[in-house]
Amino acid sequence: MTKKNLTEYDFPKELKGMTANELDLLTYEIRDFLIDMVSKTGGHLAPNLGVVELTIALHRVFNIPKDKIVWDVGHQAYIHKILTGRASQFHTLRKKDGLSGFPKRDESDADVFDSGHASTSISAAMGLAEARDIRGGKEHVIAVIGDGAMTGGAAFEGINNAGIRQTRLIVVLNDNEMSISHNIGSLSQHLRRLRISKTYQNAKDTVKKNIIKIPAFGDTLYRGLGHTKDLIHYAVISECIFEALGFDYYGPVDGHDLPQLLRVFETSKRFEKPTLIHVVTKKGKGYRNAELNPQKFHGINAFDPETGLEIHASKGASYSKIAGEKLLQLAEADENITAITAAMMDGTGLGGFAKRFPNRFFDVGIAEQHAVTFAAGLALGGRKPFVCIYSSFLQRAYDQLLIDISMQKLPVVFLIDRAGNVGPDGETHHGVFDLSYLSTLPNFLVLAPSDGEELRKMITFAAGYCEGPVAIRYPRGEASPVVAMGGKSAVNDGDAVQETEMRSRVLKRGKDAEIWTVGPMASMGIEASKLLKKENISVKVVDARCVKPFDTVALKNVAKRGVPILTLEDNVRAGGFGSQVQTFFMQNNYKNAVYTLAWPDEFVPQGATPEMMREYGLTAENVAEQIKRLLK
Ligand SMILES: Cc1ncc(C[n+]2csc(CCOP(=O)(O)OP(=O)(O)O)c2C)c(N)n1
């Protein structure tokens, strides 16, 4: 049998007719292809390597797109994309106008639900299943959810509801014992008990024996099916959480044993109840580097497949690293400081803190809402909690921010990572809404550092601030060099706040107009002022530093001088810094021309951040153009 290039297969059609040997060969071809492609484009490698057999089995048994698969988070849907005819587009993965790293309904009718954020699959699948039942349809609906995503409260809400309604629905639990880091929590311990149960071993052996007797697929496969439920049905049911909540539980099933998976999925077609199939897989399966370090290969930039080393390793310290180190340093001196992450320990730079202060470090799992209210409790108990979280995932916890933190003026600090456009992960991951939603929260201070040094100072300030909550938002990646005049930050530690107003800082003097920037957009503002200087236009550049409350004293001075003002931020225009400045000018009847450059009211697609900024006019050239227009 000659090995084909994956792009030469006529998927999904060809999959249905493959022999057992061909399917086996296909698992190797897919893994080779994934390693080759993702080493060039970057992406979620380890989660996909773990679900090769699982995805092949689902596509072989079910009739996609008539039957529906809802992928939780969706970062593990690469093989699903390959098997639905998209292999030839993989060189464009995560690039501008290219294949998305997540399911996208616009991309294929096999993608039934756009995802990116965790723990939504069971609810969405249940909705599809209930809609089917109302319509009198027959199709199967399958949610595929990882053990990490299963720790999210929304997943339990779905199980709770489907369990009582007895919706005909299949949930495939892909248990690799990993979230991004090692999965933790009592659910994960429960899954461990299910995995190592004696019944599992017995069932596995019996199923294996049965399958060995079956020479080929097709009709013969059905012979043993009647027994499958008994063979692999978990007998120690009394303890199984899913059974207790109204699901039928099957498993654990070896997720790399393709014949066994085929058999179980085939059987599951007959079930009339909500059913959970517990599949055990290895994250990174088949690529040694990823098996040894699944955390690093969870999501990776382009790398050398031989060594596993990233090709463009960043040189300078990232904002995350700076934040983690500063927090650790402060925690050495202040035993009240505690740190909380929602399954993003490394991503938020908390690895050092977790090692040094295990008793003051909390990884709560993918549970952003719990993280926020838990922090409220810690603050009420006299601790100084720092919630370290990505901007887009904090969206989940808006109500907790509002009622549990802001309304009660609790001194909780939010270190909000990945703020602004994040590039290749696209729509679901951009942190471009935080300035808007945080600005609606009474009692909050919302700070945006323009460089690494500023971030350190703001964290120091926040650690000593007891009046209420503080949010500090900063972007993905390497911290910008110090941008203030003379290359030095203009303020000292603790000088970041006045009694009632936050102080902005002047980065560059000028008299004809003002550019007010938020966070690292400062460097674009300075760049624009240099371009304008060449045309004899002198522009002042101001780093806003505090978005809420913003520096009304300095803005009143701008109003007095009557010069135009342009605001620049890596956030959506609606409700962001610029829109608040505009409201301030209007409310006070100030007549200055005010213009805002920000992301528009739409979901900005994937693509390298500088590329997307160019496309949306967030460039020094456009800032300069707009200033000239305002001056006319
Ligand atoms: C609401 C939310 N919080 C955090 C994340 C970041 N995140 C992406 S994948 C992942 C781990 C998922 O683990 P699991 O579901 O077990 O899938 P695996 O990668 O192990 O296959 C996390 C925490 C997210 N996507 N959504």
Describe it.
- By secondary structure, the chain is an alpha/beta fold.
- The protein has 3 domains: 6-292, Rossmann fold (3-Layer(aba) Sandwich), CATH 3.40.50.970; 319-473, Thiamin diphosphate (ThDP)-binding fold, Pyr/PP domains (Rossmann fold), CATH 3.40.50; 506-631, Rossmann fold (3-Layer(aba) Sandwich), CATH 3.40.50.920.
- 40% of the residues lie in helices and 14% in strands.
- It contains 26 helices and 17 strands.
- The strands form 3 sheets. The chain has a 7-stranded mixed β-sheet, sandwiched between helices.
- The longest helix has 22 residues, at 20-41.
- The protein is globular, with a radius of gyration of 27 Å.
- Mean pLDDT is 91; it is low at 210-227 and 486-501.
- Thiamine diphosphate binds next to loops.
Here the CATH topology of the largest domain equals Rossmann fold
Q: What small molecules accompany the polymer chains?
A: thiamine diphosphate
- Count of discrete structural domains: 3
Q: Multimeric state of these chains?
A: single chain
CATH C-level category of the largest domain? Alpha Beta
What's the average pLDDT?
91
Rg result: 27 Å
Which features does this protein show?
five-stranded parallel sheet, Rossmann fold, globular, binds thiamine diphosphate, alpha/beta, 3 domains, seven-stranded mixed sheet, 632 residues, 26 helices, 40% helix
Brief synopsis:
This protein is an alpha/beta fold and 632 residues long.
Reconstruct the topology from this structure.
Elements lengths: L12 H4 L3 H22 L3 H5 L2 H10 L6 E4 L6 H9 L34 H15 L5 E6 L6 H13 L3 E7 L10 H10 L2 H15 L6 H4 L2 H8 L8 H4 L3 E7 L3 H11 L5 E7 L7 H5 L26 H15 L3 E5 L9 H6 L4 E3 L4 H13 L3 E7 H4 L3 H9 L6 E5 L16 H6 L5 E3 L4 H13 L5 E4 L31 E4 L4 E5 L4 H12 L5 E5 L2 E3 L3 H10 L3 E8 L4 H11 L6 E6 L9 H7 L4 H12 L1
Parallel strand pairs: 1-2, 2-3, 3-5, 4-5, 6-7, 6-8, 8-9, 9-11, 10-11, 13-14, 13-16, 16-17
Antiparallel strand pairs: 10-15, 12-14
Helix pairs in contact: 4-13, 6-7, 11-13, 15-21, 17-19, 22-26
